[in-house]
Structures
1.
Amino acid sequence: MGAISKVKDFWALFVRRWRNAFPTILFYIVQFLLVTELFGTTYAMVVSCSTTLFQVRRREPNGPGDYLRMCLMSLLLCLLAFAAGRSVWLCILLNFTVPFCLVLWRSSQFTPKGHIGYAMTFVFLELRPPTLEQLPTQLAAVVFCCVLLVIALVLYGRLSHTAVDPAGQISRSLTRLAQLLDDLAGGGDSKTAGKELYELARSFHRMGYDRRHLLQLPDQQKRFYHLFALLFQRASYLVTDEEAWRRARETPGFSRIMHTLADLVRQLQAARENQEFQQLSAQLQSLLQHTDLPQGRLRIFSRSVLHTLLLLCREPLPGHHSVRLYHVPWSSVWQNLRQRLSPGCFEFRFALRLSVVMTISCTVSYLWEFEHTYWFPLHAYLLLQPSYEESAHRMVTRPVGTAIGCLLVHLVYPYLPGLPGVFLFSLVMISLMYCCTPGTWVQPIFSTAFALTMATLTVKETEAIWLRLFYLAMAVALVLVVNRFLLPNRREPQFRRNLQELYRLQANYWAVIRRSLRRPVDPAVFSELLSRFHMVYHEAAQYTGQLPPEQAAYHQARLVVMWNMFAELEQAEGMIQNGAVCPEEIPAMEALARELETHVDPLRGLEEIHPEVLPRDELYYVISRYLDNARTLHSGDATRVEISVEE
């Protein structure tokens, strides 16, 4: 019975993965047959490039700009791959700069493989570069595959309904927020609600972060994501501290306030016309002017939600974009680039390793005129991963899978019925490969079987097997050395860098607040800091889950305190922007912000900082809590915190 159960489980898993991979498999096979028929098997490598882009983009929201960008980038990378094969100096230059720039442009600590679609296009097209006479045909094949890619992405998005719909996601999230507020008003489970609100806030932070631009141009949809992340974060902050939540529930009018906020959220979700937004805006302003709640977290939460809803009412409707020419903030672009080029930056460390590996492997392949030398850079590219641990894992699983794949071809190849059998077996192998999880030992079995079977069209089967294993051994040696000695991204040091980054972001936020006391600051600056903080926080929290229980509890508690501090920091900024500091109080608040900026990174001298210079209002309350949490971290008592948003 146990064996039968395991077989059933395996079959169910296979069917599930087959269904998930079927669109990619179908797209590959259709492309492969059309390209080999129209252009010849010489250009079959182009099919893998567009299939990778389809696999990466099929569940993403794709618009006309995305389709145009994919097509233009594919053509550009095709030309660069061709140029890399013209001379050894171009090979060295382009194999260093192109992967480096692609990682800096597309990848981040939170989307470490964002470069993979375009990088694989460059690498794959360079593996078998065309001659000058063949280049027009290859460009035509790339254009043809790009057209098929756009058609496939459009059809998949419409037929599967799995592509992200920003407007629909916002509407569903607002409906859920209103439900949670009503549940909390009636005594619902605050822990469950807090975790769900946190996840909603994190998802919008991620969507906003993913829409960042290289030139940092204004983006309306990105601003919407940040505002909604802010809305959910404030609701999450209300319930994550058990003691403060208990006091909030004991506040007179608690249930009425929560139901009122839920109703306002529903009105925002239902509003469609400008007149409806104007009426809701007037209602929100009236409520802000007649707040009768006592000082405390519930009052701060209520007013901050009202302010955020007011900002959302004043924004243009989602999807209504006007064509405008924007001024590029070159100083911000340069500052962001300098930060990314820092040796401590995740992107720089991975970009440098990838560039070095591709430069060495591709140069060796270029200079060494031997059969199938392009397998050396191909293996090296697939073995090198953003994290040291993942690369080390692949240096075990890939050789095992490759060896099994070689054995499979050795056993099956003699029985294949000629050229049709070779092509049929190859398509079956590539189809099974797309069903497997990348990085496991199973996937290389089928990728190796596919590559070896196609290689038998030009070399003997046994020779192809030995070459495959030899080039893999070379790639393992190269990646092992580079990963060991060139800025490795190990998880434990990255966790320490993340903790330092959380403090640095708070200091930066205080610097921006200090500037905002004197002159208006673009809200996008605050949004970027907020989004960056929560992305770093989430990655750090994920790492703590892998630690021993005692260490995990210690670090998770400290992270929760940092999360509360940044939420209080953001609320303080919101109050300042809404007039909580009168002109006479600006110098005192500016001095306080400067002190906190210099004492939060690293934490020191907190006993000498007091918010007594401020009137005892909401802003005083928030900054007092911020200082209390900072002192808790500094004194090492963070382990006393009992509630975690990551529980």
Note: The two ends are 37 Å apart (CA to CA).
2.
Amino acid sequence: MKRKVFYNGKIAVPGAFVEGMAVEGQRIAFLGSSEEALSIQDAEKIDLGGRLALPGFIDGHMHFLAFALSLERADFLGCGSVDEVRSRLRAFLEARKPEPGEWIVGRGWNHEHFDDGRLPSKDDLDDLTPDNPTLLARVCGHVVVLNSRAIHLLGLTGESRFAGGVVDLDDSGEPTGIIRESVVEWAGSKLPLPGPEKLRKLVARAGEETAKLGLTSIHSDDLGIVGGDFHGIMDLYLSLDRDGKMPVRITEQLLLRNRGALDLFLSTGWRTGDGTPCFHVGPLKILTDGSMGGRTALLRNEYADAPGVFGVPIYGCEELEDLVRTAHRAGMQVATHAIGDGALNMCLDAMEKALSERPRDARHYIVHCQMGDMEQYRRMARLGIGAAIQPPFVPSDRPMALKRIGEERALSGYAWKTMKDLGIFLSGGSDSPVENCDPLWGVYTAVTRMDGNGYPKGGWNPSQKLTVAEALDLYTRGGAYASFEEHRKGTLAEGMLADVVVLDRDIFSLPEEELMEAKALLTMVGGRILFRSL
């Protein structure tokens, strides 16, 4: 790999900026003046034209394989009614022309944005897809609507029961087509996956898209897509790495559903941190509740718009504690999905017990951590438990959260500034394909707490706004720390991995409302330029 020299830039190093940088092999060899950089011989010279260079962006939690698959699936983001969902589905079918029996899969509808607020049902799909089993996921991924053919193929009836899941029934006791939580995961595992070569091509295409956004590392939860087959995921990524075709660094968040699956994985000898520079094992990922939009997030107090409803716990306390303790004792990091404050309490209880029995730098963290109070946040800080947060949830969740939990409880949640000030380690992510995985959109939402139209003016709960530097830290150093990699990436310093993004403008000097307009012009992973438009 030819040596590369960057000059005439504004290159962010800890506490300062420099103009020049040299990259040799996969690492940064020099940082200093343009003159010193240009004096280096036998190197490709790249003029940054005064542009800002930052550490490569890290998404602290998304679903990379689901994002890859979504590139060829039906998209329902932004639909304002069930009729618009039907219209989009009709257009997708006309373009795709599926064979009879082929599964139709899509994602993105949100009934909170529908004119009448109602959930779709099998009756809304059956006339459009009579010969094709159909599965359309809500934007959160925790609620799905099926057509009658899919219900039949999956064998769902009014008598179907799932631990930690719900099959909605109509007045006659038959499935409406709506399924929730663990049933969604189970149904998804029944879908036929593309073959290995097709998957490799989809991953490559997804890598091209994420490179355009400046992403160089991703903490990815993929096992739900392949029915918990960790061998399949590891074989996919490791084979791409062996061939030099990994388009992004992956830290795999292993969604192992039960003690048996965890024991099987532990028996292989793999542990958090094992792997290669481009793919390694991350934490055990545990789902403990659902989504607020689907009223399956587990709350301590009932939903404001559904008296008597508290959400859906995926595990009982003892089962959750056993999973966390087993993983912790085995040397694994643990990341628990918790959106409701009730689920957060369960997670903190389980993690505290494990840490008290065997203290160590475990860096366990909560994925999402949308609801909480000062007592819970202080407890996280005391225990050294972090959070993988999604700043884009602030504008997209706001209307829904105000309905679900009311103004007072909503204002104590999404508390990124409070959590940071307490010393809780944070990483920033997108939960893509739930949200747009552009990290600069994440920076904009963390700084402004507004949507793309600048609403609400001044931002929702502006006391929780972050500075640009704090928001960038979520997507750089924060993501590296969460995977025990702060010594090799997340900052630009000599000897660190040459994971770099160059932006089209200096976001440190922009008015905050213009942050969303910033774009990546160059993305480099380990000295390889994967995207360049300068």
Note: The CA atoms of residues 20 and 36 lie 7 Å apart.
